[in-house]
Write a structure and sequence with these properties.
13 helices, alpha/beta, 8 strands, 8-stranded mixed sheet, 317 residues
């Protein structure tokens, strides 16, 4: 499914609005970086490097981008500062493509597995349960039947919040009493979903990071128990990161990718921050596709990540 099949005008407006703080931050800095210059020279590139690093793109990714632009400038001999944003847009889009971050398909796209099992991980406070609720809403709206599993059994608030989302969206939530074995909840959820012919299962997990060994053991146990019901499960291990924390999101990604085989990322709370550049850095550094981005409180404000739309929104069409 191509870009224009599902990326509507409304979605584009939501994306532009959600990234407005980051865009303003980046553009203000770029304007300062090229002030009084007509062509891209070493000074402009040094200034641009600072702009990208202070926009939370990350040092390693910034150096890659600058190196690419240096090569273009050397090849084309004369590049004006007016052409710089177009160059940036092109090279960042290329970088995202190389890192397996392809344009996502719609929630109504056919699933290769049924039920398609998503295990959601991430620290408390990043918007994990809210992201699950919004995912459930989007899948249901696209005609999919969805089951939720409340396997964060260590926090009463997490279970309650998931139940509320289930009621709002109109999807079943499988839960047990507080302190139950999370793997047991996952087992029950997959068993019910399979028996009832569900399309999608989303499992919430505890967001504790204070002991990586325990976290790793717990997530491994949940995965192993799931496989007893559906041998290929989970099909997607989705790490939710709070975009507004900037570099702290890098650290969380490091911890969780070490603890389990994360194969998809969701970056939330981009609407309230000027640190949206973190999406570029995380995608580059971890070579894991950014699949979803959160751009507001509304149920419609979780979007499938589209690199082309993201880069266009950040640097102008």
């Amino acid at each position: 499914m191509g870009f224009f099949n599902f990326f509507t005008k409304e979605k584009k407006e939501t994306l532009d609005k959600g990234l407005s703080k980051t865009k303003q931050n980046v553009f203000t800095k770029i304007t300062r970086a090229i002030a009084g210059k007509s062509k891209v020279d070493d000074e402009v590139l040094d200034n641009l490097e600072e702009v990208l690093i202070t926009s939370d793109v990350g040092v390693e990714t910034t150096l890659k981008i600058i190196e690419r632009i240096e090569k273009r400038v050397a090849r084309d001999k004369y590049v004006t500062t007016q052409e710089l944003t177009a160059l940036l847009r092109e090279e960042i889009a290329n970088l995202l493509t190389e890192n397996n971050t392809e344009d996502g398909e719609g929630f109504d796209a056919p699933l290769d597995k049924r039920p398609y099992v998503i295990m959601v991980v991430g620290v408390n406070g990043v918007g994990k349960t809210t992201t699950i609720g919004k995912l459930a809403y989007q899948f249901k709206k696209a005609g999919k039947s969805v089951y939720l599993g409340a396997a964060d059994t260590f926090r009463a608030a997490a279970v309650e919040q998931l139940v509320i989302w289930g009621e709002r969206v109109g999807v079943p939530v499988i839960k047990q009493k507080m302190g139950s074995d999370p793997a047991s909840v996952a087992f029950d959820t997959l068993s019910s979903a399979k028996a009832n012919g569900a399309d999608v299962v989303i499992i919430d997990t505890a967001g504790r990071l204070h002991n990586k060994i325990n976290l790793m053991n717990e997530l491994t146990k949940i995965k192993n128990v799931m496989k007893k019901v559906i041998p290929e499960a989970p099909h997607e291990i989705l790490l939710v990161l709070d975009g507004s924390t900037g570099q702290n999101a890098f650290e969380q990604a490091k911890q969780f990718t070490a603890a389990t085989e994360v194969n998809a990322l969701a970056v939330t709370k981009l609407d309230g921050t000027a640190k949206g550049g973190v999406v570029i850095g995380i995608s580059d550094q971890f070579r894991i596709p950014v699949k979803y981005i959160g751009l507001g409180e509304g149920m419609e404000d979780l979007q499938l990540f589209n690199r082309r739309a993201f880069v266009d929104s950040l640097f102008g069409e």
